[in-house]
Structure formats: structure tokens, C-alpha cells
Amino acid sequence: MKLAEGPVLTSGGLDDPFLPKLTQAINRATSIEMSVSFIQRSGLDLIFDALSDALERDASISIVTSDYLLITDPVALRHLMILQSRGAKTKIFTCNSNQSFHMKSYIFVQQQTGLADIGSAFIGSNNISKAAFTHAFEWCLRHDLLPNQDPKEFNHIRQQFLNIFNHSQAIDLSDTFINDYAQKRKLCKPPLAIVHETEPEEPVPNSAQAEALIALADTRLAKQSKGLVVLATGMGKTWLAAFDVLQFNAKKVLFVAHREEILIQAERTFRTLLPQSTTGHFNAKTKVIDADIVFASIQTLGKPEYLNKLDQAHFDYVIVDEFHHAGAVSYRLLLNHFTPQFLLGLTATPERTDQADILSLCDNNLVFERNIIDGIESGILVPFHYQGIKDETVDYRELPWRNGKFDPQQLMNLFATQKRAKHVFGHWKTHKQQRTLAFCVSKAHADFMAQCFSARGIKAVSVHSGSEVRRGEALSQLNSGEIEVIFSVDLFNEGTDLPSIDTILILRPTESKILFLQQLGRGLRTSPETNKTFVSVIDFIGNHISFLNRPMALLQAANANEAIKRLNNPEIDSKCLINIDPELVDFWQQLKLDYTKADQQYQLLKDDLGHRPTATEFYHSGYVWSKMTKQNDSWFELVLSQEREDKTLLALTPYLPFLSRGVEKTTMTKCFKAILLEAFVELDGLNHPPTIEAVCIKSWQVFKRYPKLWTQDVKTDLQHIDVHSPKWRKYWLDNPITFLCKQDKSDTQSWFVVQENRLHANVDVKVDDIEVMSTAMSELSELLLARYSQRQSASTLTPISKTVQSNVVTLPIEVSRDEQASLSYYPDLKIACGHFKTGTDDNSETLTLNSTFSKLDPSIFFVAPASGDSMNGGKNPIENGNLLLLERITAINAGSITGKIMAIEIQDDAGNNQYLLRKVSKLTNGQYQLNAHNPAYSPILANDSMQTFARLKQVLNASDFVK
């Protein structure tokens, strides 16, 4: 076996490029030695993942390049530092007037246990650049070391490399050298044409990132210290974080993720945008904490033994990627420990149901959201053509279904059959494009499918942790067209950029919408190299309710019934296509579910999320809370009825009255009790009843995490008071503490008491039950805050001080922050419509919006509240009282109304005018239909008596307004 295949001479050009042979050798080697005159970012990007994978399997890497003619890209050197930090040896040969550097050699060795080493040495004209690797005419001769062959010549080549690597002019690569080199390079324009390169363009935010940056700056103006940003896969979450760190001018940054690939990719992004910042890693192997930007594995940093050694204010900016994982214990420990000036949560999670629990970790502050359809409409993502194929060879109803999953071994037995493989192959041939990524249920399934496709003449490989073909090698071969299909299990779910993928083949059930959208997202990225116009998604769907997460995700439906309803008339971007087998639609129609039962909603939500829903997640799922309490009395009564085998949760049984009456149903006219309960739990109050002084201080600290609520609910003269002030102590004691300890008329006791200047829960909790009780109380306090925040956002505006100055630095994109916008406010749509008919301004007043809206024309845009609950449902519910930004329809801006939410004047049977907010769709017969988000309201067919007079632009938040 050779480390590289093919003729010994690689001649370059499009017919014989160097890259495939190079990546093949990298992926097979245990020792890698490279010496090149120049390194360009374009070339290093092509082999970076392969080199990173080599380090992961403990291969040794030595790389030496030079400063000859200042051609080497400083950013490429910074990316080499990432490899160096993970074990690679990197040097720079410093040239002088007497000594230039023209080396171009790539040496690979594979040590074989019990056998002689094998190797390949490429020596020629190829520097590390995209041109030299892919299309330039560059000659490169390969010398192989084979078993039973005299190694003298090969060893001579290696020795000469060592001589260069250890030369006195070859120095260790460092940030200090790179900074000096970059400065020198700025003063002397290098002759990049020599290597067929131009200076890379400075990265700039895309349209969604630019909007998000404004929203992030504004949320900090509103004194928010935490925020969640939702950006669909492929829209640039990591780049957004880097741009915002630049905008915030953060000095100490922590970036946290759960997978090494995500951290490495993030470091490359930050190294590119913030070249002067030092970076470090905190993981099982390395514990660097004093770098400007620390990239940390949550599995390591999330442990108390490390957190407790770090100052809470060590970082001024913390980023948590893939924030939908943040409900895990390790994340919560980290989030509770650090007190940065700003915390940014990033996720691609599309639904409020999925966000509900994690949103509470960001103080219920959803800063910005753009989903897949938004990305497609803006051109950031490519459209999808979705084919939902009936998985006719498997009867999923016969398979055991537990905790939202099928039995994996039984799935494997049914999936690894020639009959199913033939069914899959036929549909793949019909709908495929050039490069396919397939998701399988297991390693054995991936191997089986690769064998089946190969037997049919298709070049296919399986890639997983134990496969012969490494991930980097497979991707390189897929990009170059050497193979057509990669069958994988989960190596490509998260943190991997695969822009050339144009076909997604899903051969397995997915446990949640999150996982499904991650898999879909692997093919949505644009690809300038291949110019793909869409991604083909071929999904095999079974006869089981769990597969409804597909249409729920694609159609942005809040529940299964809504998804079934939308299948008949899907409203998606015109460039997208959804085609689902009619038999599947008929099957789902028969499964229409009774959403009046809380236990059924609970189980469906549990299956979709992949874990027991929290109270906040259930609340945001759209189920009416009062219906749940009528059926179950309290939240944890419902939980215990559904989790009969969970011994930890069952320990809550004797404490249900306390949790229900003392916490969940405590009356609140302000948010004070919820804040107090959260503070009590954080002080470990069940275990050690805190002093009143400690409760007041902790409550102040907790309250400050919710600046909107603080401004809204705390008396104005106390909003700037010191935490240790006697006035604050008296205020907090007189208000929530006293009222929390009062006995309600319907109760036989008070649920909290003050004894000897300490706050006690008036319930006897066994020592073994304290942890689960504290967790339950915390879950309910988050629910109270979520319900209160949502209630207030529908009726109350939180003013933002005009005196606060934005700490926004200049970005390489024009972001307007000129003036505020003053718009007319009408108390209802009827009055607004009347104004536009008569031109009078009766019953109107003026509201001032922040600089985000400064370019709005006040003669066209206005504000009015939503009335009723007809639009309270779906992905973006509009609740009674929400303030709406609307655009008056004129002859100039009429445009298309299909797919838009419109304000409509409609005449009822009695001749009276009604004013509705509805989403407009166009039926196949050309007629328009008015649709409510709330499934309780039936669609209305449009007629000539109906008139659209405004279109909804957005639901306004409190932070959108100023005094």
C-alpha cells in the first residue's frame, strides 16, 4: 500500500491537480513534514481540516515556511498557530540578502505496527496556495518508500528537511513575529501575482449579521447584559459573534462549545477578524485562561473544580455556541458562575418551544432571529427541493418507541436490507445532483449502504469514527468529484462547513426538529465553487407520528396538527419545493390529535425535544396554561403523572402542595416574588435558610439581570440605590418578603416564614430531596418570570434612557444610527383605517422609536395594538395587546400580498365593518384566502368587499421605544 496513488509525476492543471494526492497522503500518515516558500490562506484552507484531523489521531506535524518577498499571508500564519497550539511544530525561515528560500516539499510517513515504515515524498514547484493545489501547472515528483526497499534515499530527503527545519534562520512561529511581519508587509506591497493570488478582501457582515449587530448594540443600550440570537445554520453565527466582539471592543472573551470542531472553526474565524488578539484553549489537554480570547470545551470548563478557581468577572464577553445545549448541568454551572458585561447565546433552533427553556438563561431576551426561509429569501442560503418519500419497506408501527426513539438495533435490522437499499437507490437516482451527504442510523448501516451503492457502480464511501476513509479525505474526494456519496452517522451534524454538498439523503428517523434542521443545513450553504442553485433533500419518511417533525420544521408549524393543515397549502419561498408522498399526507391526516389534553401535548413535546419538557417549554408550546391546571391542578402533578418511572422526580410527591400553592400559583402583580424565589434557590435556601440581609442582596443581584423588569417594576427613586442601602432592604422586606410569607385565604398555612431574621420555606424537606426540590423551585420561578415577562410585553412599554451612549465601533459596513423615528399610534385598527380614509388625526398620539427605525416614513408607517388571539399561534405568535409596526398600503408600495400578514377591512353579514389581522395565501384556483395563526380560527375566502389597508412589518418590543 502506498500513501498516495497514481503516477509519480503530478503535472497540475485541472486534469491532474495536486490536492487529491496531498490530502490522501495527509489522511494516511502518522508523520507529516512540509517545507514551502509561501503559504496563502486559500491553500491552507483546503488542507486545514485534514491537518487538524491528523493531530486528532496523534500524527506528528512539522511545517516550515518563509518570509521570502513577504508573500506569505499573515492570516495563514495565524491559522498555523491554531495547529501549533494543538501539537504541530511550525517555523518561519527568515530570509536575508544572502539567503532566499524556495523549498516546496511534502513528506509523509506511516508507521505500521510490526512492519516496516512506508512513505511518500513530493518534491516540486507547489507552494501552499489554491492555485498550486487545484489548477496551476505545477510539476511535483513523488518518491515512495515501500516495504522491503532500501530506505537510504528516502531517509536522505527527510534528513535534508530536518537540516532546514533546524537551520539557524528557522525560528519558531509566534504571535509576536506575525504581528511584526504583518506590519512590515503593510508597508511593502508583496508581489502576489507570482503565486496567482490577490490580497483577500476584508470580511464584512452579511445582511442578516448587519441587522443582528444593530439589535445587539440596542439591547445593550437597554441595559441588557444577556441575549439570545437565533440564526439558521449557514447564516454565520460564529462570524456574527466575532463582529460583535469587535463592535463591543471586548478585551477578554470566552467562547464555549461542546465539540472540538466547533471551537477550531471559531478560532479560525476570530483569528481572521481580530488578528491582534491572542487565543488559547481550555480543554482536557490544555488549560490556557489568560489569552485575549479563550476557546473552551464545556466538558472541561463546566466542571466546578475549574470554575471555582476563576474570578466571576474574568471575561467581559462570553459566547455560548449551540445554545440549545445550554440546559445541561455543565452549561448552567458555567452560566451561573461568570458575570460578564455581556453574554451572547447562539443557536439555530427555529421554534419558540425549543427556545423556551434556554431563553430563560438569557433573561428571556431574544435579541434577533432569522430562520432558514429568511436566509433563503435574503440569498444567504440556497433554496431546498424537498422530496418526502414513503419508507415503504419498513413498518415503524411495529417497532418499540421509548423516550422519543426507536430501538437502534431493530432499526438496523430493518434498514440493512437489499430491498430497502434498492428503494433508496431508485429515488436517489431520480432526485440527486452531484455531491451527496447521506445520514444513516449506525456505523454498520453506513457501511452497508456504501457497499450497496458501490455494487451499483456508484463511487461511495462510509465515514465514521472507525472507518478506513477519514472525514477530510472523503470531503476532498467529494469536492473533486472522485466520489459521489458519503454515508455518515453523526460526524457532519454540527460545526462543519460543507458548501459543495448539493444533495442530502436522510435514511433514518431524527429525534427532533433541531437535528433534522442541522442535517438539512449541511446543504444550504452557497457554493461559489460549484454555483449550485438549490439543495436536493431526499428524505425517507415512515408511518409513525415522530416523522411529523419534518413538516413541522419545514413549514414552521408550532404543532403536528398545524403542520398537517399546512401541508395542503404550504407557504414557503417561491424558489423552494416541498413534495411529500400523498400516502404519507393521508396517513398524517388520520393522526390529527386532540390538543385539549395536556398529557398528550406533554408527550408530543417530550418526543420532539428529546427530554422532559420544563414548565417554561410547555408554556411556550402554545398550550393554554389554565387548561393544564384544570386537568392536573399543577405543573408537577402533570409531570409526575407522565414520569412514573423517574424515581428522582417521584420524590417530589409529598411536596406538591408547596410547589403548587407556594410557588407556581403565588399571586404576582409585579415580578418581585419570582425574583425573590430565584434568589432563595440560588442561596441554597432549602438547605441553609438565608438571612434577610443575604436575601435582599441576592435579590438585587438577580433583579439586575432583568433590566427591563427592573426599570418597569422598581420605584423610580430606588432604581439607582446601592445594594447595601437600608432603603433597599426595607423596600424588599416590605414588599415581596412580607407578602410571600402571608397566608392566603384558600390555604391552611403560609408557605414561607421569617424566623430569627432568616427566610425559611415552610415545608419539611428531607435532606436527600433538597436537590430535586431546589431544581423544581428554580424551574417554577423561571416559569413565573416567563409568564410575567410575556404578559407585560403585551401591555407595557419599557422606556430606554436617551442619555446612554452606544459603545459601537466602526464596522466595515454602513450601519445607520442617525435619528429616532416618531410615528403615529392608534388605539386600534379601526381608528387607524378611519384616519387614512378621512385624513383626521383624532384619537392618535405619537410614539418615538429608536434609531433602528430612523428611515421610516411617518406618513406611511404607524403603530397599533393587536386585538384578540386569532394570530396567537405558530412560529411567531401575535398576542392580544402586542404593539404592531404597520405599513400603510398605497399605490406606490402595494406589491405582492401573498404570504404577508395584512390588516384587512372586512364587512360582516350585518353590514358592519371589522378590522382583522390575517396572513394572505393564494390558492391554486387563483383565489385569496385569509389565514389565522391560531388553529381555532377557520380560514376566510377573500371577496370583493374586503380591502387591505396595511401590511405588518414586525411586532415591536419594549426595547424598540424611547421616551
Write a brief structural summary.
It contains 34 helices and 36 strands.
Q: What is the CATH domain class of the largest domain?
A: Alpha Beta
Neighbour order of strands in the largest sheet? 34-33-32-31-35-30-29-27-28-36
Name the assembly state.
Answer: single chain
Distance between the termini: 75 Å
Poorly predicted runs: 794-818, 837-842
Biggest beta-sheet profile: 10 strands, mixed
Mean pLDDT: 86
Beta strands, count: 36
Question: How would you sum up the global shape?
Answer: globular
Rg on CA atoms, Å: 31 Å
Q: Specify the number of helices.
A: 34
Task: Kindly state the percentage of residues in helix.
Answer: 25-40%
DSSP strand content: 15-25%
If you consult CATH, what is the topology of the largest domain? Rossmann fold
Name the structural class.
Answer: alpha/beta
CATH superfamily heading of the largest domain: P-loop containing nucleotide triphosphate hydrolases
Please state the second-level CATH architecture of the largest domain: 3-Layer(aba) Sandwich
What count of structural domains?
5
Kindly list the characteristics that best describe this protein.
single chain, 963 residues, alpha/beta, Endonuclease, Chain A, Rossmann fold, 5 domains, 10-stranded mixed beta sheet, 19% strand
What does this structure look like?
This protein has 963 residues and is of the alpha/beta class. The protein folds into five domains: 187 residues, Endonuclease, Chain A; 171 residues, Rossmann fold (3-Layer(aba) Sandwich), CATH 3.40.50; 206 residues, P-loop containing nucleotide triphosphate hydrolases (Rossmann fold, 3-Layer(aba) Sandwich); 171 residues, no CATH class; 142 residues, Umud Fragment, subunit A (Ribbon). The protein is 36% helix and 19% strand. It has 34 helices and 36 strands. The strands form six sheets. It has a ten-stranded mixed beta sheet with strand order 34-33-32-31-35-30-29-27-28-36, covered by helices on one side. It has an eight-stranded mixed beta sheet with strand order 1-7-6-5-2-3-4-8, with helices on both faces. A seven-stranded parallel beta sheet has the order 11-12-10-13-14-9-15. Helix 3 runs antiparallel to helix 9, helix 23 crosses helix 26 and helix 30 packs across helix 32. The longest helix is centred in the last third of the chain and has 24 residues. It starts with 8 loop residues before the first strand and ends with a strand. The relative contact order is 0.07.
